[in-house]
Fold this sequence. Notes:
alpha+beta; seven-stranded mixed sheet
Amino acid sequence: MSRFGSWRVRRRERLAKRSKLRRRLTRTGIGFGLLIVILVGGGAGYYFYRTGQVKTIRAPHIVAAKGPTENILLIGSTSRCAAKSIALYRQECASGVNGINSDVVLVAHLDGSTGKISLLSIPRDAFVPGARSGSALCGTTSPLTPNLCADKIDSALVEGPDQLIAAIEQDFGIPINHFVDLNFATFTNVVNALGGIKMYFPDRLFDASSFLKITHTGCQLLNGTQALALVRSRHLYYFTKGETPNYAAIQAVTNAGTYYTSSSGGHYDGTGDLGRIVRVHLFLKALAQQVAARGLSNPITDNNLIGAIAPNLTVDSGLSTIDMVHLALDFRHANFGSAPELTLPTITYAQPYTYEGGNYGDVIFPTEPQDQQVVDQFLGTSPTLVAPSSVTVSVVDGTNSASQTAAVSTSLGHLGFHMVATSATNYVGPVAETTVLYRPGHLAQAQTVMRSLRGTVVLGQGAPAAGAEVSVVTGSDLAVAAPTPPASTSTTSPSSTTSPSSTTTPATTTTNPISSTPAAGNPNYGYNAATTAIPPWDPYSCPAS
């Protein structure tokens, strides 16, 4: 055969493979659990890059995936000026309303070995030590965190997606391999491009802040604007059969900035952002089921999706077209409708929270050991721990209580940690979460210490006191006890972790005033689990019939 003939054969083989790939991609079952990533890879996503419409930015805190699993951060931005195609947000942008926060902080864990996906929501009001980077942004001057400042995690997006990635990695130990950032316009356009999404409403609903208004019950088709109002609803009222909604009274209460009293003719949901997360998960299930049922083989639908997504989408520069195609192929059989959906457990502190003299409004605190248990379940692995005797630990007084500081230090010493004395203090106010502060590169040491702590505890990267590898900055709700061994999983060898000795004598210390058990008669404290019962008034997928 001539060289030219051989070239023609190879060319036909390449075209055949490409045609086969396209057929496989158009048959891919796609769910909104992966949001735009699989949509981009599953239909004709490479055209987005060819036209240059998808924005890519560099994210230095992105880490390379190890093995067959990947963690993709899905960000829902509140930027009004990035959604000028919607009249309401165009007006708000023009009037100067453009607080850029993350309405949605959702991590999708993709396991290529099983083809399964799981989702973990991080509540936007979670108060963490590394939300922002630098004292110039928030006035923090602590020598323990010279380049970080505490805030609600949703505020990290003000500095861009990379800062939000850093906060998640440093404060929760979840590595992020890619991110996808979408705004209000992307969301509404995708729903409209699909012809709307059907959901069943057991009760009528109204939220004067998100502009949600469902005036009758039953199965209804939501357009993009209605769907956005639903997933953004944090101040929800519901109306049972026979009640007459008093929309004007609710609007007046909302305009006055009060959401905690119900007007006549309605019931206040009262779950705030945590309830909104539940509704986001319910919406994602409904969307995933309906998209999977329709498929994306319709070229008109595919083309509409391209136009809906591309102009308002931002991804990390490492998420290539080939990566998206591989994701679409690897997860073409994934059942997005039944994917596990978890929320990071938290403790509610519903009174306005004061930190270093600043008022941060309503916040929620991470909590141990529940958080690490849920993260382990979500990732399907346990963190690599080290022997306590190899970890140097200092205890910093964060509550103006020398007795608490001494008791915590003694208790950790009993568990085998190498304690380093310090007189450092870091008082931030009458209520504070405990921070396990660690030097860069010492996450394993910090997680080993955190396994011994109970209460409102969170990780944070900084400069531990007295030259130690880890500092425990004491908080208002803290106990030290013999750590529970990490949960065993099928993907982690027992030999990969070193558990503290079970022969150590546990010692505990607890202080005021927050507890995982709500205080009697005090509605300001409460534990929020990883999964919750769905309220009877929340909407869900329409019956198949």
